[in-house]
């Protein structure tokens, strides 16, 4: 028996065992209640979605730990880990200076690198962490994308005011003529809403499709491919799109 | 119509509405993303050395044009999990 045939036979055996086990199990589709911590503070009721909070702190902890680890062993000749981080930094540096360099200049546009880079890294790991069994994407909760969106909008408008001055910034809302003011304000708000809902919808939709299809085929084989697509591919693309749009909005806001 | 109460009618309408919202909402993004992919193919065949940049731009454009489909997905989810409760 050749090695390849043995491997094939083994795979078929595992598959058969899995099907046999799956037929015994009951399909369960459950999108359960959201686990919450409630407590009151000065007469106000506070609610924290515990799983989301724990997962997003886990993601932040992983990145902070990785950054400290890389910083503690910086070398002249980079190792594998350091090379990865250097590649990431250079990639985002060129992205930021390409997009913002025209209107802000290379020196000032580099100030945006830490913000853009950490936004991408946080969202990326948040989107793909659901591939690990037992962990859940924090971006599946609408609160996390909305929080990131608020940060982005604050950053966009602050940098616009800093670049143009308050008077010119307000004048920008009266373009092309003053009655367009409400339309311009709604347009600004729609930017943020679409940014947040795009991320949330993609991750939540992927998670639900994964759950439903997994229950239908009783966890045999198909969820692996679906996890690859919805977890890794869509997660990476959406994190990149969120970051690129944040950058593009900033570029539009600071250009005159 | 024996035995069908108002609440069940609302549930049925919510599920039907979710299906309709998702079905019609998927048309626009499907056409738009296909158009973007086709144009990107044309661009790559004309200018193969720019394939990386073209693919990146195409993916971002597709993700943006997908957002209308995502809105209908969110509305369908709301109908299924909130309105049909």
Could you name the key traits of this structure?
heterodimer; A: 256 residues; mainly alpha; B: 85 residues; F1FO ATP Synthase; 0% strand; rod-shaped
Stretches with pLDDT under 50, minimum 5 residues of chain B:
none
Into which percent range does the helicity of residues of chain A fall? over 70%
Work out the radius of gyration of chain A.
Answer: 23 Å
Number of helices of chain B: 4
Please state the structural category of chain A.
mainly alpha
How far apart the termini of chain B lie comes to 22 Å
CATH architecture of chain B: Up-down Bundle
Number of strands of chain A: 2
SS content category of chain B:
mainly alpha
| Shape summary of chain A | globular
Order of helices and strands of chain B: HHHH
Share of β-strand residues of chain A: under 5%
Largest sheet of chain B: none
Largest interface: A-B, 16 and 12 residues
Q: What is the radius of gyration of chain B? A: 19 Å
Q: Within the largest sheet of chain A, what's the order of strands?
A: 1-2
Largest sheet of chain A at a glance? 2 strands, antiparallel
Tally of helical runs of chain A: 9
Q: β content of chain B, as a range?
A: under 5%
């Amino acid at each position: 028996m050749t090695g390849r045939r043995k491997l094939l036979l083994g795979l078929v055996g595992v598959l058969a065992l899995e099907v046999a086990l799956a037929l015994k199990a009951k399909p369960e589709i459950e999108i359960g209640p959201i686990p919450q911590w409630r407590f009151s503070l000065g007469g106000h009721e506070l609610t924290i979605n515990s799983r989301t909070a724990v997962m997003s702190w886990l993601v932040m902890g992983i990145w902070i730990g990785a950054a400290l680890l890389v910083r503690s062993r910086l070398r002249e000749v980079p190792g594998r880990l350091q090379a990865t981080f250097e590649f990431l930094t250079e990639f985002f540096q060129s992205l930021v200076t390409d997009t913002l360099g025209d209107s802000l200049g290379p020196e000032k546009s580099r100030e945006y690198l830490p913000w853009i880079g950490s936004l991408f890294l946080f969202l990326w790991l948040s989107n793909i962490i659901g591939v690990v069994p037992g962990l859940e994407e924090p971006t599946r909760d609408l609160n996390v994308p909305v929080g990131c969106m608020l940060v982005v909008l604050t950053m966009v408008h602050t940098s616009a005011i800093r670049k143009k001055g308050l008077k010119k910034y307000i004048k920008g809302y009266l373009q092309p003529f003053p009655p367009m003011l409400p339309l311009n304000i709604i347009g600004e708000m729609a930017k943020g809403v679409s940014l947040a809902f795009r991320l949330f919808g993609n991750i939540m939709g992927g998670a639900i499709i994964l759950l439903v299809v997994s229950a239908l085929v009783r966890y045999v084989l198909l969820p692996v491919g679906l996890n690859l697509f919805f977890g890794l591919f869509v997660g990476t693309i959406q994190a990149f799109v969120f970051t690129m749009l944040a950058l593009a909005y900033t570029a539009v806001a600071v250009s005159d | 119509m024996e035995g069908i109460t108002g609440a069940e009618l609302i549930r049925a309408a919510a599920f039907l509405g979710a299906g309709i919202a998702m079905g019609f909402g998927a048309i626009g993004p499907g056409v738009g993303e296909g158009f973007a992919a086709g144009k990107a193919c044309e661009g790559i065949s004309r200018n193969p050395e720019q394939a990386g940049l073209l693919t990146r731009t195409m993916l971002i454009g597709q993700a943006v044009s997908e957002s209308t489909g995502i809105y209908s997905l969110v509305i369908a989810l709301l109908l299924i999990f909130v309105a049909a409760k």
